[in-house]
Amino acid sequence: MVKNNGGEYMAETLEESEAVRLPGWMRLLAIISGIISIVAAIMAIINPLLALRTLVILFAVALLFIGIERLVVGVSGKSYRFITHRKAATA
Q1: Tell me: the pLDDT tens digits for 32-49?
Q2: Helix (H) and strand (E) counts for the chain?
């Protein structure tokens, strides 16, 4: 914990945040997903019942996959964790 100028405590961040340049394919994916999100939002505003049905179906499918995954973990006794970022060792 670190004190800020007002004397309040705030949590230290583990690493500095910095902007990085994304590869072209990742930028394209971000643009496409943004367009899909905007279109889906407009459709949800125009037809809320369709949006509600879609959300219920997506939620049910997600629960199905989570249930299958939990069942496999319980039967096998193994659980895997994805490592998304490793902090470089500092000298």
Answers
A1: 999 999 999 999 999 999
A2: 2, 2
Secondary structure of residue 10 in the 3-state scheme:
strand
| Residue 71 resides in a domain | yes
pLDDT, one tens digit per residue, over 57-67 is 999 999 999 99
- Considering Cα of 90, then 84, then 23, then 34, what sign does the dihedral take? negative
Which stretch of DSSP H or E encloses residue 9?
Answer: strand 9-10
SS3 2: strand
**First-last CA distance in the chain:** 24
- For residue 39, the enclosing domain spans 21-76
Domain count for the chain: 1
The pTM of the whole model exceeds 0.85: no
